[in-house]
Design brief:
Blueprint: H1 12-21, E1 40-44, E2 61-65, H2 66-88, E3 109-111, E4 117-119
The chain binds zinc ion.
Length: about 120
């Protein structure tokens, strides 16, 4: 298992920069959003788990409302779960079960109790 780097926390200066880059609006609903405080969170545009080293760059952040962020995070979680389920099904990971094939019984012959085989 890969060791995840610690999640980045933005400084007030970084938040101000990212907020200004976004024009002061939530990129999910398009309404004005505060720079800091309980109503705003800084979202990773591309989900961080895809590439923790690269996706913690400032350019991947955007200000969003807490309410908007919750909805997006739920969608991301569903997508992440589906991705992992499908990866587990990739060819070579698991061989499907199959019946062992054997020669069919000959219907024109019969075994006697004394060990002889005769035609029906
Ligand atoms: Zn919003």
């Amino acid at each position: 298992m890969r060791i995840m780097k610690r999640r980045r926390t933005l400084t007030p200066g970084q938040k101000a920069f990212v907020h200004a880059e976004a024009g002061g609006v939530c990129e999910i609903c398009g309404n004005l959003v505060p720079v800091d405080g309980p109503g705003v969170e800084y979202d990773h545009r591309l989900q961080r788990w895809l590439d923790p080293d690269r996706l913690d760059e400032l350019a991947n952040f955007r200000p969003v409302h807490v309410r908007c962020h919750l909805r997006k995070t739920a969608q991301d979680a569903a997508l992440r779960a589906k991705t992992k389920r499908q990866a587990a099904l990739a060819p070579g990971v698991k061989r499907p079960k199959s019946a062992i094939s054997s020669a069919p019984f000959r219907r024109d012959l019969r075994n006697k109790m004394n060990g002889r085989v005769e035609k029906r």
